[in-house]
């Protein structure tokens, strides 16, 4: 079986200074893949490159059997590639339901939004409130729900746990596990690498814009040296800065 | 109702339209347009030239004023709206100056600094007098209400959702499958059309257009009116225009009370007070007089 996403030799950045220096990765259908690495290693930049938001970018991205190079970022969601940005991931001045309705290319957007409200009852209760009234965890839920509007095959998530309390992190991670159970692949860019790897299938570790290690999640977690260098010393939250 | 009051209310109505157009562009869409006076001027000159040289009726001239200004916005949008938002600010500021200088330079078309007079107004049947002024004021107020209500409908529509989402985060809109460029250019054109329409009304109201009426001062007065009234409220735009214009007009009477102060000093003092009001608004009422709650 060919990979759902196959990226080769991705290079680029925001200006002349390259941040990614030739990154390759693959993701299979329904697979959870974590990208870990220290701050500034290029993890979030890689996520942006895959969804087409990096201003300067070279390399090849194949997704679901087609090459994405000539596909504009706004045309990628319709192919099944969703992105949940780290910050500003909801529209604060729109209501919760409007945040879902704003997605383009859904056959019946209201019906699809209602379906998703069934899965996110706490959002459904407040659907007519402005999204800025939501807490960090609820915003993350809304961002995920919004990314689900188009029935994605792969969700690229940039630090969904950022700025969340440990309990909320657990909730968001549970949501992500749930996505994989529905055959939605997830590419997770995470500071909380140990916790993320604990439920991932595979992982990549980045440093200075390159992949320095890749393996099954269990093998990465078991490697003492890698763990010391890139995943932080402690268990659980120590990896989160 | 004295004719002075009618005159002030007419000006408030015209500036209210300008402020509404800016509120749509900036408050709801995040477009920084520092050249609204350019579109206003294009509308005014379109109405003036069509009404005098080509003998169009006042109604047709008004419609053309809106259309010309909207068309003028297309190249500006094509040039700048794919770039970062500050480019629009700089380009529109320059554009408005280019419009004014073109008016000054192109004598054969615009009669240069001498301007164009004899622009006909609607309601000619009412003769010259207070009835016609009142009828024209009524026309402006009806237009103001219709534009405000129409814009209210637009920002609540699916198109309005996209527009507000673009203001919040352009990239996020893009990864949800919508290219933000087309909605932004539509908003730029619609705002320009409203400004052009206001320009047409102004030309017909004064009966004369000249390049001195279209300096950047106008743009900044409507920015101040919008901020004082509330950037994200169409009612706020009208209130802001009312407050600023009432002050600017009303303070002329200070002249009689303070005979020792020179004309220039007083004019500067009026602007300083408007500036102070702007600063105080931003400090103590950042949402504007009608802001606070978001007008969804």
Notable features of this structure?
A: 241 residues; alpha/beta; Rossmann fold; six-stranded mixed beta sheet; four-stranded antiparallel beta sheet; 10 strands; disordered C terminus; B: 296 residues; mainly alpha; 13 helices; 1% strand; globular
Describe the fold and architecture.
The complex is a heterodimer of chains A (241) and B (296). Chain A has nine helices and ten strands. Chain A has a domain of 163 residues: 3-Layer(aba) Sandwich (Rossmann fold). The longest helix of chain A has 16 residues. Helices cover 33% and strands 25% of the residues of chain A. Chain B has a two-stranded antiparallel sheet. Chain B is globular, with a radius of gyration of 19 Å. Chain B has one domain. Chain B contains 13 helices and two strands, in the order αααααβααααβαααα. In chain B, α1 packs antiparallel against α9 and α3 runs antiparallel to α9. By secondary structure, chain B is mainly α. At the A-B interface, loops of A face α7 and α8 of B.
In short:
Chain A is built from 9 helices and 10 strands.
The total count of strands of chain A amounts to 10
Q: What strand order characterises the main sheet of chain B?
A: 1-2
Structural class of chain B: mainly alpha
Number of beta-strand segments of chain B: 2
Integer tally of domains of chain B = 1
Strand and helix map with partners:
The complex is a heterodimer of chains A (241) and B (296).
Chain A: E1 5-13, E2 20-27, E3 32-37, H1 43-51, E4 56-63, E5 66-67, E6 81-84, H2 96-101, H3 109-119, H4 121-125, H5 136-148, E7 154-158, H6 166-181, E8 185-189, H7 193-198, E9 202-207, E10 210-216, H8 217-222, H9 224-230
Parallel strand pairs in A: 3-8, 3-9, 6-7, 7-8
Antiparallel strand pairs in A: 1-2, 1-4, 4-5, 9-10
Chain B: H1 3-28, H2 36-52, H3 58-80, H4 85-105, H5 107-110, E1 116-117, H6 130-156, H7 158-168, H8 170-174, H9 181-206, E2 208-209, H10 216-229, H11 234-250, H12 254-257, H13 263-284
Helix pairs in contact in B: 1-6, 1-9, 1-10, 1-11, 2-3, 2-4, 2-9, 3-9, 6-7, 10-11
């Amino acid at each position: 079986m060919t990979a759902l996403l196959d990226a080769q030799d991705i290079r680029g950045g925001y200006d002349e200074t390259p941040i990614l220096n030739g990154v390759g990765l693959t993701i299979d259908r329904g697979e959870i893949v974590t990208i870990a690495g220290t701050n500034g290693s290029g993890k979030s930049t890689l996520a942006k490159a895959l969804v087409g938001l990096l201003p300067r970018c070279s390399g090849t991205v194949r997704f679901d059997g087609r090459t994405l190079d000539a596909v504009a970022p706004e045309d990628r969601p319709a192919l099944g590639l969703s992105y949940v940005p780290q910050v500003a991931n909801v529209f604060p001045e729109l209501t919760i339901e409007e945040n879902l309705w704003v997605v383009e290319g859904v056959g019946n957007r209201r019906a699809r939004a209602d379906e998703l409200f069934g899965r996110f009852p706490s959002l459904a209760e407040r659907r007519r409130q402005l999204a800025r009234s939501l807490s960090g965890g609820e915003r993350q839920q809304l961002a995920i729900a919004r990314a689900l509007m188009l029935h994605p095959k792969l969700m690229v998530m940039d630090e969904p746990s950022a700025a969340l309390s440990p309990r909320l992190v657990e909730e968001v991670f549970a949501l992500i596990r749930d996505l994989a159970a529905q055959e939605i692949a997830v590419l997770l860019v995470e500071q909380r690498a140990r916790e993320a790897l604990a439920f991932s299938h595979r992982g990549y570790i980045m440093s200075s814009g390159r992949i320095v290690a890749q393996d099954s999640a269990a093998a990465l977690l078991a490697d003492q040296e890698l763990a010391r260098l890139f995943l932080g010393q402690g268990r659980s939250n120590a990896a989160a800065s | 109702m004295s004719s002075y009051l009618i005159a002030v209310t007419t000006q408030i109505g015209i500036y209210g339209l300008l402020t509404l157009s800016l509120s749509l562009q900036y408050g709801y869409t995040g477009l920084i347009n520092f050249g609204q006076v350019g579109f206003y001027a294009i509308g005014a000159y379109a109405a003036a030239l069509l009404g005098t040289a080509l003998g169009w009726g006042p109604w047709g001239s008004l419609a053309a004023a809106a259309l010309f200004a909207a068309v003028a916005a297309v190249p500006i949008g094509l040039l700048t709206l794919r770039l970062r938002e500050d480019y629009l600010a700089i380009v529109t500021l320059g554009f408005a100056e280019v419009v004014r200088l073109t008016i000054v330079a192109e004598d054969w078309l615009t009669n240069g600094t001498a301007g164009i007079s004899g622009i006909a107004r609607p309601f000619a049947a009412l003769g010259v007098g207070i009835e016609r002024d009142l009828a024209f004021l009524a026309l402006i107020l009806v237009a103001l209400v219709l534009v405000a209500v129409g814009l209210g409908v637009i920002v609540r529509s699916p198109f309005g959702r996209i527009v507000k989402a673009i203001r919040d985060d352009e990239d996020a809109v893009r990864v949800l499958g919508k290219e933000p460029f087309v909605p932004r250019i539509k908003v730029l054109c619609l705002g320009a059309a409203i400004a052009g329409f206001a320009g047409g009304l102004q030309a017909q109201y004064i009966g004369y257009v000249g390049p001195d009426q279209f300096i950047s001062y106008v743009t900044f007065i409507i920015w101040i009116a919008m901020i004082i009234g509330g950037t994200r409220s169409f009612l706020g735009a009208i209130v802001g225009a009312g407050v600023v214009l009432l002050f600017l007009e009303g303070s002329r009477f200070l002249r009689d009370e303070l005979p020792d102060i020179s004309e220039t000093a007083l004019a500067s003092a009026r602007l300083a007070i408007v500036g102070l009001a702007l600063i105080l608004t931003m400090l103590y009422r950042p949402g504007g007089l009608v802001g606070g709650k978001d007008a969804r």
